[in-house]
Write a structure and sequence with these properties.
Blueprint: H1 5-12, H2 25-30, H3 33-40, H4 48-52, H5 63-76, H6 79-87, H7 100-108, H8 116-133, H9 146-156, H10 161-183
Length: 190
C-alpha cells in the first residue's frame, strides 16, 4: 500500500515501525537517511547499524535486493558484532517485554499461550542453551510450530558453538526476510 510522505513522517515519529503497515520499495528509497534507518532499524533485532550500512546503496529495485544488501552488511561484520546481533534476540517463550516484532512472531507460534508445563520446558531449554553457547536460541518461529521449535532446541544443543553461531545467523537472516516481507510488498521499480 503506497502512503504519502507525510503519513510516513508521522508514523516514524514513534520508536518502532509496526510491521502491520506497509510501504513500497520506491517509497522507502525516497526516505531521508534518518527515516530509512528508522523504518528498517528493527528488521535485524535492535540493530539499526544494519540499515545504516545499506542506506547509501539505494535505490533498491525490489525487497529481495534490499534483503541481500542487509545480509551482506551482517556477513561482513566482525565476529563480535555477530555475537552482539545474536544476543539482541530474546529467549523464546520468555515472559518478558519483547520488541513489537518479536511479540508478534512468538505469538504466531503460540509461545505467548503455553501451558505452565510447556513454559517450564522452554525455560529449561533456554537455560541449557544459553549456558552451553552464551547466547539465546534463535529460530524463525513463523516457519515452524512449537513442537518443531522444541525438536530443534534438542537437536541443536548437540551442535558445536561455531555451528550454532552459523545457524543463528542464518535464522536471523530468515527472520529479517520475513519482517521485510511484512513491511514491503514485492513491487519492483518501474
Amino acid at each position: 500500500m503506497l502512503r504519502d510522505r507525510n503519513h510516513w513522517v508521522a508514523l516514524l515519529a514513534g520508536s518502532v515501525v509496526p510491521f502491520t503497515l506497509t510501504m513500497d520499495v520506491q517509497t522507502l528509497n525516497k526516505c531521508d537517511r534518518s527515516e530509512f534507518v528508522r523504518v528498517l532499524g528493527e528488521i535485524f533485532e535492535h540493530s539499526p547499524w544494519v540499515a545504516e550500512g545499506v542506506v547509501d546503496d539505494r535505490p533498491f529495485a525490489a525487497r529481495a535486493d534490499l534483503h541481500g544488501a542487509m545480509v551482506a552488511v551482517v556477513r561482513r561484520a566482525e565476529p563480535e558484532a555477530h555475537l552482539t546481533l545474536i544476543r539482541a534476540h530474546p529467549d523464546l517463550g520468555a515472559r518478558v517485554r519483547l520488541s513489537t516484532s518479536s511479540t508478534a512472531e512468538q505469538a504466531s507460534a503460540g509461545l505467548d499461550q503455553m501451558p505452565e508445563a510447556e513454559f517450564q520446558r522452554f525455560h529449561d531449554l533456554n537455560s541449557r542453551y544459553r549456558e552451553r553457547f552464551g547466547f539465546p536460541f534463535i529460530i524463525a518461529v513463523r516457519d515452524t510450530t512449537r513442537a518443531g521449535i522444541l525438536e530443534a532446541f534438542e537437536r541443536r544443543l548437540g551442535n558445536s558453538r561455531d555451528e550454532e553461531i552459523r545457524t543463528a545467523l542464518e535464522q536471523i537472516e530468515r527472520i529479517a526476510e520475513i519482517r521485510l516481507e511484512q513491511l514491503l510488498p514485492a513491487i519492483a521499480l518501474a
